[in-house]
Design a protein that fits this description.
two-stranded antiparallel ribbon; mainly alpha; 67% helix
């Protein structure tokens, strides 16, 4: 939403500037009387309007899908670090509760958890991103 806001603000003020046009081009939408992105970064990170729009402009759909999946996966990986669910935090909690992985040393617990926790978080973010993008393609989200 910040990209939308800044892009629209800059386009209204400096619409002829090349860099501002790369950031986003805006035109009045036929319904509602508000401005909608028609080019630039703001257009490509916005969801296609409906499923027909996905087939009319597949580059837009692929770019949006890539953006959504990567943003959700990155946010998920970041969230586990700041929420106390990282491998280091989980290893510390397991050690305090005196749980151990059979066949592994106590010091290798963090290393073992590092193999699974970030991957699971990124995959969960990808799944949420795919669900969101698919519902956007179908027009379920505003």
């Amino acid at each position: 939403s910040n990209v939308y806001f800044m892009s629209q603000l800059l386009y209204k003020r400096f619409g002829s500037n090349f860099l501002v046009r790369l950031f986003g081009r805006w035109e009045e939408v036929s319904y509602g009387g508000h401005l909608g992105p028609v080019g630039g970064l703001a257009y490509y990170i916005s969801a296609p309007k409906n499923l027909a729009d996905v087939f009319e402009n597949p580059l837009h759909a692929v770019f949006y899908l890539t953006f959504m999946l990567s943003a959700c996966a990155l946010f998920s990986k970041t969230w586990i670090e700041i929420s106390g669910s990282s491998a280091r935090d989980v290893a510390k909690q397991l050690k305090q509760q005196q749980y151990f992985i059979q066949g592994h040393r106590e010091s290798s617990l963090k290393k073992e958890l590092d193999r699974y926790i970030p991957t699971a978080a990124a995959f969960g973010g990808l799944c949420i991103g795919a669900l969101t993008a698919f519902s956007d393609f179908l027009g379920a989200i505003g």
